Structures are given as C-alpha cells and as structure tokens.
Amino acid sequence: MSTSANFGQAAEAASAKRILVASLFGLAMGGLCAATAFSAGILKYTPVMLAWVLLNRTVMGAVIGVSGLRLPWAWNGIVLGVVAGSVFSFYLFMNVPGPIPAMNLVANGLYGLIIEFFTTVVFKLPPPGRPRALRAA
Q1: pLDDT tens digits, residue range 99-119?
Q2: How many CA atoms lie within 13 A of 53 on its CB side?
Q3: Rounded to two decimals, what is the model's pTM?
Q4: Domain boundaries, the chain
C-alpha cells in the first residue's frame, strides 16, 4: 500500500472522528438547551419539543463537523451555528410569541461556537482539507 493511500485513510478516519465528536457535542448542547428552556419556562415540555431541540442541535454539530469553510474556527462555529439553527429559530418564530426566536438565533451562534471549540481546540480535530499549519490556528 502506498504512502498516499495511507494518508487518505488517515484523513478519512480523522474526518469521521470529527463528525462524530461534533455531533455528540451538538447532542450535549441540545440537552443543555432543552434543560434550560424547559426549566425556565421558555418552552413547554413535550416529547416532540424535546426531540426537536435535540435533533436540531445534533444536526448543528454534524454540519460543523463536515464543514470545510475557510474561516477561523470560532467564526466557523458561529456562522454554521446560526445557519443550521435557523430552522429552529424559524419554527419558534412561527409558534412562540415575543423575543424568543431572536434570542434563539443568538444562542445558535453561541452553541455553534461551543461545539466548534470542543471539537477543534479541545479534541484537536481540525476541519477537513486544511493544510497542517493552518489547522492549529
């Protein structure tokens, strides 16, 4: 087996690990988001709402995990958190009165930043396709 084939397999394994770690942190952020929203009375607890929050944050993590955007890690998390979480913000806009949808939009960026921080900085799993020197930045 050639060296380039080994490198390709290693890059593929690292990419899969990044997606898994980011998705798991998305799920954890979903748990945090749901616990906060339900205990503060922001959202009414139903199993469907819980599933919706967990799914949205897990998908946010997966999107961050597969992202190949050429942004610094913090901006990557914020931008993709807002974009992936906008589905949930739109749902809230249609179903919950008041400032909650706008607050959720801001929270999406924060959750995306946290997911990206743990994935890239703590677990040292840089976005795919970056040269080694840029991955640490």
Answers
A1: 988 899 999 999 999 999 999
A2: 23
A3: 0.86
A4: 3-135
